[in-house]
Design a protein that fits this description.
8 strands, single chain, 278 residues, 11 helices, 16% strand, 8-stranded mixed beta sheet, 2 domains, Rossmann fold
Length: 278
């Protein structure tokens, strides 16, 4: 069995720790300086508490699951203490930041694995995927820790940054779409048309992100949709609501100007057009 240090047991980290423990491994955490709720979670889960130097000395694998703003700070502390095992950076960071963090932990002697967790915190009613990229043997060691649990390991290859790229791609849709939904409902509420908006929502397709074949149709209509989003921005402004998401959408739509009324374009070409803005 493997000894794992988890930094730090927040909501997702606690769920990950529980799955690792359920697999028969020992999980250490460092509650010093953390919130009372973090310490309570550690106690509830039966995690072994230790100071950071002791946890690192005893552990073969370290999971870093923290707010993205703290990812480098945690990595530097681990590197400074000379950890030489496998460091799993499972934070929501860009591929470039993931590679920077890998460089930090390598400077202390550790091997870095780029990871991303997609899904609800795993438990009795939910499963999640742990996407992994990086050195093959290190990825294999991490996968063994969670294999067979409700946190399913998925290998993405040897290139550091792939797991983070997937997280960013998924989050760009998931977070933005939910935020757009909030803005849409605020505008509907302002004008008393919420029930009608909900009725239209029920008629919408549910596989928007999965339907790549539909994207050329979006590009073909972008010349009409961009001005429409400009009008949406004006309506939001009049209601005292944020306009930035609508304006940004209009800006992106203008990149497909050459595809006007031509839904026959290959998906690859449609997506390539988005890279030409610079």
């Amino acid at each position: 069995m493997t000894t794992v240090a988890l930094l730090h047991p927040g909501l997702m980290g606690s769920a990950v720790a529980a799955e690792i423990r359920r697999n028969g491994h020992t999980v250490l955490c460092c509650p010093a300086g953390r919130s009372a709720r973090t310490r309570e979670r550690a106690e509830e889960l039966g995690l072994v508490t230790a100071d950071l130097p002791t946890a690192l000395e005893r552990s073969a694998v370290v999971f870093s699951i923290c707010p993205p703003v703290a990812a480098e700070e945690v990595a530097r502390e681990v590197a400074w203490l000379g950890f030489t095992g496998v460091y799993v950076d499972a934070n929501a960071v860009s591929p470039d930041r993931a590679r920077q963090i890998a460089g930090i932990v390598r400077s202390g002697g550790a091997t870095s694995v780029d990871a991303s967790i997609i899904g609800h915190p795993p438990g009795e009613t939910a499963t999640a995927r742990l996407y992994l990229s990086g050195p093959r043997l290190a990825v294999r060691a991490v996968a063994r820790v969670v294999d067979g649990s409700r946190l399913q390991p998925v290998r993405l290859g040897d290139e550091l940054g792939r797991a983070s790229a997937l997280k960013m791609a998924f989050a760009s849709f998931q977070k933005a779409s939910r935020t757009l939904a909030a803005v849409a409902h605020a505008l509907a509420d302002q004008h008393g048309v919420t029930d009608a908006l909900l009725a239209e929502a029920e008629r919408m397709p549910t596989r928007l992100l999965a339907d790549r074949a539909y994207l050329p149709s979006v590009a073909a209509r972008a010349w009409r949709w961009a001005p429409e989003m400009d009008e949406v921005a004006k309506a939001l402004d009049a209601a005292g609501l944020p306009t930035e998401l609508a304006q940004a959408t209009a800006n992106v739509l203008t990149l497909w100007g050459a595809d006007k009324d031509d839904p026959s374009q290959p998906v690859a070409r449609v997506l390539r057009q988005l890279h030409l803005h610079g």
